[in-house]
Specification:
single chain, about 160 residues, alpha+beta, minor pseudopilin epsh fold, 1 helix, about 35% helix
Length: about 160
């Protein structure tokens, strides 16, 4: 049995280059979708953190039968008891690439009944927008109920 070049199996350089070219084209097409996926995930995560902060404050107000407030600092939300000013929970947030509107969120206080402590019968609205002008809007009713609008208009 002699040595025959036709019997050697393997990948040729041309086939390897064609495969690499196809993979790089597919990667280039998929990259923008992956970036949008990451930005959507950040927006959803930030929205969920804020909703959880307000829900936790309402739950604590009902279970303790005391006024509980939520306020935002630079990179976290504080949930605290109004009478003693004792911080019950400090929720860290990473709002990288997310813009909150209004910038200075008003302090929201829940009564022991779960209703919001308000001077007028107005809703509190928090808008979250990313750099693509995609946004979500959280609305807190006077009754303390949260609602989410996923298609908020951003500037």
């Amino acid at each position: 049995m002699g040595f025959n070049k036709k019997n050697i199996l393997g990948i040729g350089v041309v086939k390897l280059l064609i495969t690499l070219a196809i993979v790089s084209i597919l990667f280039t097409l998929a990259l923008p979708s992956f970036n949008n996926f990451i930005k959507d995930s950040r927006l959803t995560t930030s929205t969920n953190i804020i909703i959880n902060a307000f829900n936790l404050a309402r739950f604590e107000a009902i279970s303790r039968k005391k006024n509980i407030s939520v306020s935002k600092s630079s990179n976290h939300f504080n949930i605290f008891e109004m009478s003693s000013q004792m911080v019950l929970k400090n929720i860290q947030t990473d709002l990288t690439g997310i813009t909150l509107s209004p910038k200075d969120l008003p302090e929201v206080t829940y009564l022991g009944t779960g209703y919001r402590l308000i001077a007028d019968n107005s809703e509190v609205t928090v808008k979250l927008c990313d750099d693509r002008n995609v946004g979500k809007e959280i609305t807190i009713s006077p009754a303390g109920k949260l609602s989410l609008n996923g298609g908020a208009l951003c500037p």
